[in-house]
Amino acid sequence: MKIVGVIAGLAVLCASQKVHALCIYDGEDNAKTTIEREFKDSKWVVRAKVLAAKDHFSDEDESWTSYRIQVQHAYKGRPAKQLRFFTFRDSGGFYMDRAWVPLPKGHDVGGEYLLFLNPLKRSSGFPVAAKGAVFVNYSCGVSGPWAQVSSSAQSQLAALER
Question: In CA terms, which of 44, 46, 104, 132 is 20 to 30 Å from 80?
């Protein structure tokens, strides 16, 4: 009986915390998306280069990173040439980092990414630094390093761009 109480207590505690670290897409946990689906659901689809990154690590509030990116090619929409990209540093974040190199040197400055983007609508759960930034449509989806975008995926993007 004691274990049931502990589990119930943990469930209440977890439910009361702000949670950004979810891989949920259109109500589906760990959804497998497609280029076509995310293309439709994103305001902008771009190939972008990382110009800079700024981290905020904290034990008192949420940790996050803001990247400055330069659009190399827009497949959908007409975004500004440079954008600020925001992500929380949690299990649902989308990082433009070289995982094998510790931060701050581990940011993939100069790296190129395929990004399915939406403007961030500021809410009470986001820091002031997120104002005016964009975020990836689905952190667990098809956005990723350009070097990993297959030629068939590039062909799909070109066809959707028309």
Answer: 104
Give residue 21's pLDDT.
54
Domain residue spans of the chain: 2-161
Beta bridge partner(s), residue 61: none
pLDDT digits (tens, 9 = 90+) for 80-89: 999 999 999 9
For 8, 82, 92, 115, the CA distances from 72, given in Å and listed in that order, are: 50, 9, 26, 11
- pLDDT tens, position by position, 8-22: 333 333 333 344 457
Q: What CATH topology corresponds to 2-161? A: OB fold (Dihydrolipoamide Acetyltransferase, E2P) (2.40.50)
CB-based burial label for 137 (10 Å; 0-12, 13-18, 19+): buried
Q: Which of these, 127, 118, 141, 2, lies nearest to 62 by C-alpha position? A: 127
